[in-house]
């Protein structure tokens, strides 16, 4: 019987390896400049796909290598394992509108660009949170996740349910014409073909049109001990130096950069126009980024959290991607009894890798255990919301260091 079991286990592992080969590939060179000169500065081992929630605790979870490299030539960071976007994004459980902080962020951007009567395209429009603020503009979303596209369409927003490819760009140009603004919030880091992405955006922009790209800043991710930004959907980690070099080659000029320290652990917003690189003083630079100690500090977060919790039973709040990496890398499956979340699509599912159940946020009202806030970047908003449900709640965050709130 034991031999039969071993054969079955070996067969299962072989099938899992074959599935990985179907869904992922490994790259050797930097996707921004093509250089093979790179140094690995973080290795999280094999991690699950953070938003592929399990329907059963017994469901087999695929794991893929998760390693971050620094390009010696252009200064961009990237992971070398590229999972097929069709596999990652056709159905997507993250809804941007579930965060009040992000809704306000979108409202402020809409107010700033003041595009009344103008044509605005959003790439990766998610559930329409930003485009909802653009009701006085001609607006169009491009969103590959069918479930999210349908949410926007139900609100009267026109959405093309496809990836932003050359074919999609041609279709938009033919049917809708050139855009005054193209907005790409939290999608550029997800893109493997970054050159094609910028080229396709340029095709759709009017001569004086504006491309707005927003992405987490690698400086804050690395210096703030944040492993939660590192997962397979995030193929690249953006530096100002690297973006300047890349965009110069793409004949795009940065005319403004804004920094948002509380957005996704620290994000940059680049305002771009076509043409030669302009000499501007954006008031921002990468400064010192401590790549060489990042692995050591991430391991210390894991070890300190393990020593701090010991055998204590706690719960989590916020079934976010970054929380999945934290729970898996820190081996919290024996500490965290459940994770409470306000996204209905996640209820009744299980966090990939740890098999921790995800429950409706309202049910946290009866919890007496301490609560680990998994999306630490939204800790203030989450704490306020949970205190309304559970006034006696006691909170912990683990990043950048352990803190009792």
TrEMBL record:
Keywords: Methyltransferase, Transferase
Lineage top rank: taxon: Bacteria
All residue ranges annotated as the C-methyltransferase domain in the record: 263-400
GO MF, any single term: methyltransferase activity
SUPFAM superfamilies reported for this sequence: S-adenosyl-L-methionine-dependent methyltransferases
Methyltransferase putative zinc binding domain location: 30-89
Residues annotated as signal peptide: none
GO BP annotations listed: methylation
Official protein name in the record: Methyltransferase domain protein
